[in-house]
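subagent[fold] <- orchestrator: predict structure for attached chain, return tokens only, no commentary.
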Amino acid sequence: SSGNVTLQKVDFHAKGGQAKKMKVLVYFGEHARELVSPESGLNFAQHLCGMYPETKEKASSLLQFADVRLIPVVNPTGHDMVMLGGNLCHRTNSKGVDLNRNWDDHWRPEKRVDTNSGTAPFSEHETQLLRDDAVKYKPHVFLTIHSGTLGLFTPYAFAQSAATPSSLLYKHSGPSFLSIKSRMESDDSSKARIKEMINLLDGINPKYCNCEAGAAGDVLPYLSPGTSMDYMFDKLGTDYAFAFEIYDGASSGGYKYNSKDVKLIQTGVLQRRSDFLLVEEMSEAEDIFEQSNDRGEQCFEMFNPETKTDYDATMDNWSKAYFELFEGLISIEKSHGMFAN
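subagent[fold] -> orchestrator:
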């Protein structure tokens, strides 16, 4: 706890298994209106507890090689404003700060609504608590879960990663962070890690997302400073870091793009609105919401499934995707010699 903020963490650990285990850290609910994110955390916790017969063996196997820590609600004060106050469009914490712009990795000041980065890096009780916990826990793997679009992202969000051929990179019109020194410029191993992450996502993507996948700064037409994903990889030295966007209410697929959605994206009809939006690209959706009498309802629909059928399908799809992600990383680490034979 710090100030008026208390964060809960849930640890999953099995006796036996490898003497040295991979440490996994997963954040849910950085942004308050993305209610499907904490719900996905609860569902994955149930899977890890063996409550679902189809994944019980997977959970047991995973915990022989990994310890898993879930932070179910990273932004509790903002979450309360949505759940108790009924403000279904609220994104930030109760002080109006976007926690996913408040990390000390190429942070920059920004006061605009919804992407207010705070008075300084780690100005918020939430990010202070999360930082201190992560430094102590020393995760090998970090994953943060969002909604509002679909995407599977790796570092870097603040810059292009040099893991993608230059011919495929977006030409960003916004401020450039490419000249700033970072882990990616001084450590060739980070580039190799990014390529491993992207290769793994390429296998997962068709099954669970059918969306854009890769280094956030490479595949998205904007850059984002001060994110938790970049901090974990760039500053804390976490081996693997990811950000998943797991629901797009503007699409017909919802939790996974279908062929119709892909065509609409290609033609520009279905616009991509990512959590990693820079302030210069401020959400067109906000203008839509402001002009609508049903602003709260539209916000909820964009970020969260409305029906039980869609909710259940979203939970099932992404819990299985998390399993496959972590299983893939265990296989990679086996090839690196992390685990004893």
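orchestrator: received. Logging for downstream: Strands lie at 10-12, 22-28, 66-71, 141-146, 150-154, 212-215, 240-246. The longest strand covers residues 22-28.
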